[in-house]
TrEMBL record:
<dbReference type="InterPro" id="IPR036412">
    <property type="entry name" value="HAD-like_sf"/>
</dbReference>
<protein>
    <submittedName>
        <fullName>Magnesium-dependent phosphatase-1</fullName>
    </submittedName>
</protein>
<dbReference type="InterPro" id="IPR010033">
    <property type="entry name" value="HAD_SF_ppase_IIIC"/>
</dbReference>
<dbReference type="Pfam" id="PF12689">
    <property type="entry name" value="Acid_PPase"/>
</dbReference>
<dbReference type="InterPro" id="IPR023214">
    <property type="entry name" value="HAD_sf"/>
</dbReference>
<dbReference type="InterPro" id="IPR010036">
    <property type="entry name" value="MDP_1_eu_arc"/>
</dbReference>
Length: 155
């Protein structure tokens, strides 16, 4: 029996752009204004264009999805996940400051899988390198996640 892949996503500059800064550099509260989510500076908090399609694809194909984010403001990230209506796509959310290794150890335990059964997307090369050393397939997304890169990584 083949093990189901666990697909893990970073947040900042991988799934979303928080007005050109990381979530912990934004200025809550976040509010919906004219069908957009903005912070108190008026900075636009948005998902990258292909992210809704990617998350829907994962759900339709019954992939286990998780988040691994090193933010120092996990509550802000969780609030934004809810406002963007994507929090329900993730079976696990490891959102706390520190090394991504800690995130992946927790995910390995929670899913009962091996590191080689995980696929990880992140915009920061230091995280890609760190997680790759565990045996995770890590994909660098320097300009945010898009459909083409996602589909190529599943192969």
């Amino acid at each position: 029996m083949q093990t189901q892949k666990v697909i893990v996503f970073d947040l900042d500059f991988t799934l979303w752009d928080c007005g050109g800064v990381w979530i912990d550099c934004s200025q809550p509260p976040f509010v919906q204004r004219e069908r957009r989510i903005v912070d108190s500076r008026g900075a636009y908090m948005r998902l990258y264009d292909d992210v809704p399609r990617i998350l829907a694809y994962c759900k339709e194909n019954q992939y286990h999805c998780a988040l691994a984010s090193r933010t120092t403001e996990p509550d802000w990230a969780k609030t934004l996940l809810g406002l963007l209506d994507i929090d329900h796509y993730f079976h696990q959310q490891q959102i706390f400051p520190g090394s991504k290794v800690a995130h992946f150890k927790a995910l390995k335990k929670a899913f009962g899988c091996e590191y080689q059964d995980m696929l990880f997307f992140d915009d920061e090369m230091r995280n890609i390198e760190e997680v790759s050393r565990l045996g995770v397939t890590a994909v660098h997304v320097p300009e945010g996640l898009n459909w083409t890169l996602f589909r190529e990584s599943l192969i």
